[in-house]
Design a protein that fits this description.
The protein is an alpha+beta fold. It has two domains: 68 residues, no CATH class; 272 residues, Jelly Rolls. The chain has twelve helices and 16 strands. The protein has an eight-stranded mixed β-sheet. It has a four-stranded antiparallel β-sheet with strand order 8-13-10-11, with no helix packed on it. A hairpin with a 7-residue loop joins strand 15 and strand 16. The longest helix is centred in the middle third of the chain and has 31 residues. It is globular. The termini are far apart. Bound molecules: 2-oxoglutaric acid and fe (ii) ion. Fe (ii) ion (FE2) binds next to loops. The site of 2-oxoglutaric acid has 12 residues, from strand 7, strand 9, strand 13 and strand 14. Belongs to the iron/ascorbate-dependent oxidoreductase family. One of its GO terms (biological process) is gibberellin catabolic process. It holds the Pfam family 2OG-FeII_Oxy.
């Protein structure tokens, strides 16, 4: 057994008593019932199975910040409290788990670097064809804005889980966890209770059109007001960046900009703020499982922890975080628009063993009812595509995506 593990239920253990007392005090600061918070964690999906406070607590994660972090996580992510994860821990002890974030720890490979101030069309075209993802520098988003967004996001994520779940009322910022696949009202589409198959991520979903509508409302929590203002500022920058990149790509593809303009509809923009918990279990647990984005363009800013990986030539490659740069990837809709010349890149997020990670994604889509024409796919609207994806997730637990729309004579995928 791991020597760092103690039984917190042992009353003779002075250290464990002081930890219980400390947790009690910390959680009493919030409006939630601290005992409820702790005991409920024994079975997150079934609150009726509340058990007394009797947990195994690894000493190495006992700092104050860890305790705050733990009670802010969705219960199933609080690994020391969780039966499922104990089973997984045992696998680790038996050598089946891995110390690293994957059995094959991929090498970092520099992404193509695009200078937004002097856009090089040829370089951009090659990056879109060969990679479907690139790094953007000199994008004009102030580093102070990126820093403030990260700081505010971290503060919000550290709120108790129950407080985050209550965010929804009269607020465009909605909390989710366990899957980023949401209905248009922001509710999780399908969340498995299986720890191995869920996405170990929690997030805030912000449709930018709603951000606009709520700008005049004063939320009772100044933290939310400030965060909303920062997001609005960020939205302005990202719509500018997305539309400039889109125009350059359309130009490179020799398409008629006027005709395809509705394929980038600013009002469809979504901002997703994610927190990935630290890695505590084994390499099978993912922050986000392998997927492609459904968007036209996705733009990511991240802290310095890292975890994003992309599939290139059948190999997983690590994306290294570089301060003040953005990572841009193309989504399924851009692949269709380009007749498969550009790639909707497969990617995933691995968890870090020691640190949690915060990233902020911006996703923009075609106008809902515009038909997207391509020689490789039957014509469809983004509305139809999204409905199909949602149906596939409900029926098969996973997105099938573009394969559903491919014309028979072009079954080769990129
Ligand atoms: O957090 C990240 O690095 C990636 C997020 C992502 O892939 C997504 O939201 O689709
Ligand atoms: Fe993604």
């Amino acid at each position: 057994m791991d020597p760092n593990i103690i039984a917190a239920s042992s009353t003779s253990n002075i250290q464990s008593f002081s930890i219980q007392f400390h947790i009690f005090n910390l959680l009493s600061l919030s409006n939630t019932n601290p005992l409820y918070n702790i005991t409920r964690a024994t079975n997150s999906e079934n609150p009726s199975s509340i058990k007394p406070f009797s947990i195994i607590f690894p000493q190495k994660v006992m700092s104050e910040s860890n305790i705050i972090e733990n009670h802010s996580y969705p219960p199933i992510f609080r690994s020391p409290f969780n039966d499922t994860t104990r089973k997984l821990d045992l696998k680790d002890e038996q050598g089946e788990g891995a110390e690293s974030t994957g059995t094959l720890d991929p090498l970092p490979l520099p992404l193509p670097l695009i200078d937004f101030q002097c856009l090089d069309d040829e370089k951009l075209d090659t990056a879109c064809k060969e990679w479907g993802i690139f790094r953007l520098e000199n994008h004009g988003v102030p580093s102070s804005l990126l820093r403030q967004l990260q700081e505010h996001a971290k503060t919000l994520f550290r709120l108790p889980f129950e407080a985050k779940q209550g965010l929804a009322k009269r607020c465009p910022i909605k909390y989710f966890w366990g899957t980023p696949a949401l209905t248009s009202s922001g509710v999780a589409l399908l969340r498995t209770s299986d720890a191995l198959n869920m996405d170990w991520v929690e997030g805030l979903n912000v449709p930018v059109s709603q951000l606009h509508q709520h700008l005049q409302h004063i939320h009772h929590d100044p933290l939310i007001n400030d965060f909303r203002d920062l997001l609005e500022d960020y939205r302005g920058h990202l719509t500018r960046i997305a539309s400039t990149l889109f125009e350059a790509m359309i130009n490179n593809l020799k398409l008629d900009l006027q005709q395809v303009k509705p394929c980038l509809d600013e009002s469809t923009g979504l901002i997703r703020v994610y927190r990935y918990p630290r890695h505590t279990i084994n390499e099978h647990v993912k922050g986000l499982h392998e997927h492609t984005d459904s968007s036209i363009i996705s733009i990511l800013s991240e802290d310095q922890v890292g975890g994003l990986q992309l599939l290139k030539d059948d190999k997983w490659l690590k994306v290294e975080p570089i301060p003040n740069t953005l990572v841009v990837n193309l989504g399924d809709m851009m692949q269709v628009l380009s007749d498969d010349e550009y790639k909707s890149v497969k990617h995933k997020v691995e968890l870090n063993k020691n640190k949690e990670r915060v990233s902020i994604g911006y996703f923009v889509f075609p106008e809902e009812n515009t038909l997207i024409n391509s020689s490789k796919y039957k014509p469809f609207s983004y509305n139809q595509f999204r409905a199909q994806v949602q149906q596939d997730i409900k029926l098969h637990g996973t997105k099938i995506g573009l394969q559903n729309f491919k014309l028979p004579h072009t079954s080769q995928t990129v």
